[in-house]
Amino acid sequence: MRFLPAPILTSLFTLLPLMAVAQQKTANYDEAAIVPYTLPELLKTQDGQSVKTAADWTNIRRSEVLGLFEKFVFGKTPQNWGKVRFETLSVQNNALEGKAIRKIVRVTLPDHPQWAGLELMLHLPKAATRPVPCFVGVSFGGNEAVSADTDIPLSTRWMRASKTNGVVDNRATEQSRGNEKERWQLELAMARGFAVATYYYGDVEPDRNDGWKDGLRAVLSKDGASTEWQDGDWGAIAAWAWGLSRVVDYLETDSAVDAGKLAVIGHSRLGKTSLWAGAQDKRFGMVVSNNSGEGGAAIMRRNFGETTAVITKAFPHWFTKTYSNYANNEAACPVDSHMLIALAAPRAIYIASAEEDRWADPKGEFLSGLHAQSVFDLFGKKGYGVHEQPPVNTPVGDVVGYHIRTGIHDVTRYDWEQYIAFASRHFGL
Ligand code: GCU
After folding, report:
1. Ligand 1 and 365: CB distance under 6 A
2. Which superfamily, per CATH, for 6-426?
3. pTM for the whole thing?
4. Ligand 1 touching residue 363 (CB < 6 A)
């Protein structure tokens, strides 16, 4: 490969965010301009049989739909990781100013020592008198970003720099502490009796187009990933989702947590990740998608805001290669996001949008939950209970929850209030 001279490289890096903004500006935001589309049928098997009962769904159609998402969107997760080892690195009995017990646990694969492992951070409400339900999610920053407690070791992994995250030379610094704490609302969760478990997504794979070379995907590949990823091979989202399931493996061993009451949660690209983790791993009793947008909850066929063409060009590493075939060709894709939501059934699922986050297509996010209803019906479960997108800051829904809050693309205290109320109801707290 020829190397670009430094000034050209620098200007490319300055241009990239501008290009993204330009793309956001030129995207379609006009409902009237959406080309009419037909969604793939949920309740028809590949060989044309009608899915009439919960048993038909569970025994036949569900695995077909899961297989379609593996083949065409996220790629198939390999099964060769072998044993999983947990090593408690620290227990802090006075975290969050005495409100929480914080454990940091390293998760490694003894059969694959080339992978340095992930460091999961678990906050438990100190006041708890019995095993507690737990939110499980991946973070954009290291553990030091999720909580401002100064005794949390700084992540040493590659990290993307932003204006506000204190990352220098792609590494966390003291200035990175707490920069994601608004998004995690640990104090609120502790006060309501929930534990929160999280890990940094870069522990599994750095979020760059060539990140697979330095991540778990290379380690688990047959050839050590000397070759590029092929159609059907797993993408980074599937790898991050795999990490969430390993967190569950640990939580099942920790008697402070009620592993029958786990909610997987994620924002944006990590909301796409939580949807895929929840679809594959039924140990998650509840799924939360916060502003997950394209490739997550938003109906791809609407082409509103971000499109398949844009996402597969900007972030090809998130998906299996095959997914890019559907750029400007959505009608040919065997799935759409209502099917991803349906994979949560009959478990509870909450989809959240933000009014100013048009790039993620709030209405498309709402519609996926609506069009998944037929599967929840098979189980006699009530979904939204409404057919139109509700006004801002007006949560709706029974087993399928939804809200659109005022504000931008983010996770806020308001969002957490709704997730905690929803989880409390579903977990019978
Ligand atoms: C970009 C991307 C989205 C993604 C978001 C995020 O905006 O286009 O698909 O959800 O980043 O992860 O914040």
Report:
1. no
2. Alpha/Beta hydrolase fold, catalytic domain (3.40.50.1820)
3. 0.95
4. no
